[in-house]
Every structure is written in structure tokens, then in C-alpha cells.
Structure to design on (159 residues):
């Protein structure tokens, strides 16, 4: 069998993978884990010892970082779990469009116009209210597994 008989078709985009493997027994509270294909923040971990020949099992309770839904999973502690690459970036708010999209200023001086206003009512009120008052607002955008969402806002005051 020669080397040129293998053809692999890559479906991944250029750049880093969306997740990385980590042994279940090493994942702790306040870390991140993928449960049911959703990126979650771990809020509870319990490890149970099993019978004579069984594996210890880890019971994870996580909150979806985008929807806020509670998800649970049980994994043998020696097995690998997917852990999402979670990034948090700050952008200055420039404008809010009529259709609910925001225009953000990036560090490089460009604009980012593909994000919607958050669905969380208190955060939405803070952003809209501050913008209407003419405050200089910086929004924190959390991104993981190809999704992005505004998760926080702060007033940086007048320069």
C-alpha cells in the first residue's frame, strides 16, 4: 500500500479547532465543557466511585454560556471530554441599528457589524439606555464554537 492511496477530506476551517480534549477527572468547577454539543460553564462536579471493576464517574452540571440552559452529563473520569476554546473580547459600541444589530469598533480600527443585541432583558436595557444617553460603552463579547454573543457592558466615561 503506497502513501498516496489515502485521501482525507478536511471539513474544518483554517485556524484553531473549536474544542480540545481534556480528561474528565481534571475538569473543575468554573471551567468549561461541551455537553450535548453546547459550550457550558461547569457549575457543579461530583465524582462517584463505582464497583470492583468499574471506572469512577464524573457528574457534570453546566450552564450553556449562550442560552443559560442547565445541562448535565456523566462521563467516566478516565475518558476525555471536549472543552471549548472560549474567548472574551471587548469592543466599543458605535451604533445600534433598527433591526437589532450592533456596530462595534475593533482594536484594529475596523467595524464588526454581525452581532445582534443580547436577549437578556437587563443587559439589553443597560446597552440601549446607555447608548441613548450618549455614554461611551464597551461591550464584552464571548465567543466559543463558532458562536458569539454580547455578555456584558461597561461605561468607560468621557475621555
Amino acid at each position: 500500500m503506497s502513501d498516496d492511496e489515502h485521501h482525507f477530506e478536511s471539513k474544518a476551517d483554517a485556524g484553531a479547532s473549536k474544542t480540545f480534549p481534556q480528561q474528565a477527572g481534571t475538569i473543575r468547577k468554573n471551567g468549561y465543557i461541551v455537553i450535548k454539543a453546547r459550550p457550558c460553564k461547569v457549575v457543579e462536579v461530583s465524582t462517584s466511585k463505582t464497583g470492583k471493576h468499574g471506572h469512577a464517574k464524573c457528574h457534570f452540571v453546566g450552564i450553556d454560556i449562550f442560552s443559560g440552559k442547565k445541562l448535565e452529563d456523566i462521563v467516566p473520569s478516565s475518558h476525555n471530554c471536549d472543552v471549548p476554546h472560549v474567548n472574551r473580547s471587548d469592543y466599543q459600541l458605535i451604533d445600534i441599528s433598527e433591526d437589532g444589530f450592533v456596530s462595534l469598533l475593533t482594536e484594529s480600527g475596523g467595524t464588526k457589524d454581525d452581532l445582534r443585541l443580547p436577549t437578556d432583558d437587563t443587559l439589553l436595557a443597560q446597552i440601549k439606555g446607555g447608548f441613548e444617553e450618549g455614554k461611551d460603552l464597551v461591550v464584552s463579547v464571548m465567543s466559543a464554537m463558532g458562536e458569539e454573543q454580547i455578555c456584558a457592558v461597561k461605561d468607560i466615561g468621557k475621555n
